[in-house]
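Incident review: delayed structure delivery

Summary: a single-chain prediction request sat in the queue longer than the usual turnaround. Root cause was a stuck worker, restarted by the on-call engineer. No data loss occurred. The affected request and its eventual output are reproduced below so the record is complete for anyone auditing the incident later.

Affected input:
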Amino acid sequence: MSVSSGLSVILQIWDEVGETDDERDKMLLQIDQECLDVYKRKVDHAVKSRAHLLQALADAKVELSRLLSALGEKTYVGVPEKTSGTIKEQLAAIAPTLEKLWKQKDDRIKDFFDVQSQIQKISSEIAGDSEQVESLIVDESDLSVKKLDEFHVQLQELQKEKSDRLHKVLDLVSTVHDLCAVLGMDFFSTVTEVHPSLDDSTGVQSKSISNDTLSNLANTVLVLKEDKKQRLLKLQELATQLIDLWNLMDTPEEERSLFDHVTCNISASVDEVAIPGALALDLIEQAEVEVERLDQLKASKMKEISFKRQAELEDIYARAHVEIDTEAAREKIMGLIDSGNVDPAELLADMDNQIVNAKEEAHSRKEILEKVEKWMAACEEESWLEDYNRDDNRYNASRGAHLNLKRAEKARILVNKIPALVDSLVAKTRAWEQERDTTFTYDGVPLLAMLDEYMMLRHDREEEKRRLRDQKKFHEQMSKDPEVFGSTPSPVRPLGPKKVTGPRANGSANGPASRRLSLNSHQNGSKSTSKDGKRDARLSAPVNYVAMTKDDAASHISGTEPIPSTP
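Output delivered after worker restart:
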């Protein structure tokens, strides 16, 4: 319905009702006023609506600028460059861009939250207060990609640090595990005492990587290494004691092998010991018990062990023909052991040194003793040859005669070498004595004196043979031409088959008892034993070596039986 038609209707109604003109004017004036009021309200509403739209447009532009600034976008595709068109058109143009930027902002906030959450979490793990993580608030004033990248770099650095720390933790935990295995300790209780998360049942990423954990783990490793070092030193000391005691008591290999797990590390360094249980306390206690047992056993076996060493020492000297007072040595050993004033190890070490010195002396005497053996053998052959030459039937065709003949030929060659052999022996003996400033004795008798007496007696023997030959010639001439020599000679005392038999233990029957030397007829260096079981310190000599005085030789001059000379 239009205004004019509405006015017509109202006038028609007033005509029918019979309204007066005043009433009509009043009613029309009221209608006009009401229309004006409606118009005015409409205009006010339109003004307000326009103002609201303008404010919305301004706000949208500010929001757009703020979003672009927060997102770090200097330019953005879709932002209207011109401000033409109605307000609603401008709002409609900017609205899609705002929607996209709001969505981008939400996504960016989520990215920032994720990165910063990880940074906060790792930082808390490093700081050791992961259970007290504060609520995270993202700063929306700067949501630029640059800022996000900075957080990503920070996160990567923290992730690398976490990885490095985790590797350190795992390495330290592994070291603790190995040390606990070697020391025989409980790994679980040791490592969880540092931090509960270090148990093997806990995931790798869940293990504590804080400074305190790393420090405590490092300290634990140091303590365990020091404990390992001290235990190894203790075990090596026990192993040394075991070996010394075994060697002391000549313990068999079967018994020693029971403690191979102890002695195998006697020279090992700390890092070389890696066998589980190698340094366990019970193993060390077992070794201590064994050392204590052997110490107690050592006291009861000391005499047996010491006398065994003494017997070895005596045997070395016997084979080297060096005279020692064995009874005094054994009595001294008994006295030291019974007194308890000497350490058994020191006593045996001293005896071992004596054995070493004895072996060195025996070695220095070896060459001279070999020549003495040759000299003694040659003297024996000389004695046999003299007996052989006295045998009138030596050329008979009896059994073995050709063998004796060959032996005699060899014996003559050997006997002819005796002077040179004695000269060489004298020279070497004198050189030995000068070098060591001591006398070379053979079973207690000076060897040079022995050789000098032998050469003197050999010379006397040769002189005796020469006189006997001359006497024989003299008697032969007398028997052939007695008138030349006067009356018939008196009977000559028979000359018995006396042979030069070498130095006897107490002197020969027809010579003085002084300076009688005895060389053992056994040429192997064995000890001679008297009736009371003691070793005879005298030498046993070649059987043809006898001390003969000049009176003995003169007594044979009147003899009639010739003595064959040694070729």
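Verification: Residues 21-70 form the longest helix (50 residues).
Action items: add queue-age alerting; document worker restart procedure.
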